[in-house]
Amino acid sequence: MEALVRILTDLHPDVDFMTTDKLVDSKILDSFDIVTIIAEVDNEYDVAIPAEEIIPENFNSAKSLYALIKRLMEEDD
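The chain above was modelled as a monomer; its predicted structure follows.
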């Protein structure tokens, strides 16, 4: 989770990603941010986020995004 929070903080240093749970709904993250996050997650965790998983629910908080990453990593095993 630390690496994910670092990725998110690099994009928006002024946001508390540990408590914010409406990153997409509040328009903190835009489509460019999400594309950047997807690329960084692939580099950091070696997991590709498929198009069908690119929904607001998966990107509204660091916790939900990390849960998605963990699930995708488990599916790869």
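The chain has one domain: 2-76.
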